[in-house]
Amino acid sequence: MGRVGEGGRGRGEEREMWDILTISIYIKFMQEKTGNGRIQSHRDLQVYQAAFGAAMRIFELSKRFPVEERFSLTDQIRRSSRSVCANLAEAWRKRRYEAAFVAKLSDSEAEAAETQTWLDFAMRCNYLDIESGKELHLAYNQILGMLVNMIKKPSDWTIPTHTKK
């Protein structure tokens, strides 16, 4: 079986694509934070888009993991990477309640860190090439950074409640 990542795009071209994606995600995240971008759904959040893209990349790469890992590493890395997105969607729908919003973001943060752990195992077991593993680690570091920023300042994201006087 060939190493993961062989064939298709060249490594330089793939790295360039990830670099462009990284810059694009950061710019759009800052636009969201400053109010220059209109967010109507969790799908509009750059952190969601980055997490979804990384989860799909993991899905594609994990297709090449050995069959004996189907119900362990393959299942776990796919589940945790998808859970980052699912928890973000839930957080977005709970933004009327700051504590619930932060709790779901915290769950998303934990799932992103878990995904990084599974990436470490996949690289150590030689199921995932180092280059792809590093790129995904970088993507999840950026996702974690955006989540932490949202957790630190939830008032930028939550829906203000109006009380009658």
The succession of helices and strands, N to C, reads HHHHH
Structural class: mainly alpha
> Sheet bearing the most strands, described?
none
Low-confidence stretches: 1-9
Structural commentary:
It is a single chain. The protein contains five helices and no strands. The protein has helices at residues 11-34, 46-62, 70-93, 98-124, 130-152. The protein starts with 10 loop residues before the first helix and ends in a 13-residue tail after the last helix.
Q: Would you spell out the secondary-structure blueprint of this structure?
A:
Blueprint: H1 11-34, H2 46-62, H3 70-93, H4 98-124, H5 130-152
List its traits.
mainly alpha; 70% helix; disordered N terminus; 165 residues
Quick structural summary:
It contains five helices and no strands. The protein is mainly alpha-helical and 165 residues long.
